[in-house]
Amino acid sequence: MTKLYFEMNAYDINIRIPDKGRPPLTPMIFAHEFSKDGVVMQNESVKVTAALVNHPPVEPSFAYRFDTPDRSIVFSGDTTPWDNLIKLAQGADVLVHEVIHKPSLTRLMARIPNADRLVEHIVASHTTHIDVGKVAKAAGVKTLVLTHFVPSDDPLLTDGMWIEGAKTHFNGKVIVGKDLMEI
Questions:
Q1: CA 67 to chain centre
Q2: 54 lies in some domain
Q3: β-strands 94-100, 143-150: how paired?
Q4: Where are the alpha helices (DSSP H) in 103-173?
Q5: Does residue 93 sit in the same domain as residue 5?
Q6: Are 121 and 147 in the same domain?
Q7: Which structural domain range is residue 15 located in?
Q8: Which of 57, 89, 92, 127 has the fewest Cβ atoms nearer than 10 Å?
Q9: Same domain, 23 and 41
Q10: Is 76 left (phi over 0), alpha (psi -120 to 50) or beta?
Q11: Residue 116 reports pLDDT greater than 90
Q12: CA dist., res. 31 & res. 41, Å (int)
């Protein structure tokens, strides 16, 4: 996949490198192919662990944990509530998790043609704002950061509604993630 990416973008890359005086990009990229749970990269600064998660019809789909000397951060990727993710996130400082607001999907269906199939996929492949709190609690994380919101453009959805749902089962800190936010 990495090779094909560079082939697809060869024209752009090849004009930008000499134009901007940058070093060649491909020697700086080290792809690591993997297809199962486990440590995928480790050095003195970070250990990266992957776990298979459930995001049908995408297989395989992974969540990632980054452990550093200072803290641990887990990214769910797109997934339903899943035991592998809960195991991966055990005791993490931060869990960044995608989330859907299921009650608002009826408004989404009213706005989008063919939305019944879309909503069927969303519900079967993602985690609700209630269940994300269950996942965070079961994993024993300190902070839950919500991201990849569906629906993302519903003006009736407030940050408080996302947080309230997660707090139904999770007593830790809940943050509604925003682009370029630093935590």
A1: 16
A2: yes
A3: parallel
A4: 105-111, 115-125, 131-139, 159-167
A5: no
A6: yes
A7: 1-31
A8: 57
A9: no
A10: alpha
A11: no
A12: 10
